[in-house]
Amino acid sequence: MRVQSLTLAAASAALLAPTTVPTTPTATQDGPRARPEIDVSAADLLTKVRDCASVSQGRYRSDSGAPATIPVCGTRDAVFWKADMDIDCDGQTTRRCNRRTDPFFSAATAFQQSDGRYLSAERLPYIVVPAPSDIWNPRDHGIRGGSIAAVVYRDRVRYAVVGDVGPHDMIGEASYATARALGVPPDPRAGGTASGVTYIVFKDARVTPIENHAATVAIGKRLARNFLRGE
């Protein structure tokens, strides 16, 4: 588990605060010949992001002291990176995320729910993006609080929001809830995985309120299908 800076997260929140018009699910009526949409597979998404056109000006570390080897890659519709997964247990104090279970616990996240409370890492699937720096500025690519991501691990695809900001030189972190949904050990002390996680964040697409996970999944599935089709 990497150490996070509250001061850094607070400063980054202002830089990454959502400003775009929120994306909301749209209801459609299927005609008699309409076919149900098929969920995209992990294999299809991994094939789509097999090649990297780097959009970062440098590379990130997976952990403090590790070599900087991870670029942020980009396409017309998304950015992505392939990294480890450290466990973020910050935000609301819950049974599994608190000062007793996590030695680096912080009661704050960079972004807040619609009721003004910080996010719940135990309940809400979210990912962590690095603070803006000379390496890469997420905002320049339409990535802000509430942006929607598809996270791939082995044969699983799960959808999450951008919910917190981490150190400017490290990448590869997600909430307790994201890890649990993917089958990654979610314990903040000894959990996570050293490699094999792909984070795909869709440009200029976010959900509001940020805690509406059902909307995140509905929109995320549509964005992932369009991403594969090149639409």
TrEMBL record:
Cleaved signal peptide residues: 1-23
The UniProt record lists the keyword Signal: yes
InterPro entries, sorted: Chitosanase_fungal
GO terms, molecular function: chitosanase activity
The keyword Secreted is annotated on this UniProt entry: yes
Keywords per UniProt: Carbohydrate metabolism, Glycosidase, Hydrolase, Polysaccharide degradation, Secreted, Signal
An example Gene Ontology CC term for this record: extracellular region
GO biological processes: polysaccharide catabolic process
Top-level taxonomic group: Bacteria
Pfam hit, one: Glyco_hydro_75
Subcellular location: Secreted
Location (main, coarse): secreted
Name this polypeptide is given: Fungal chitosanase
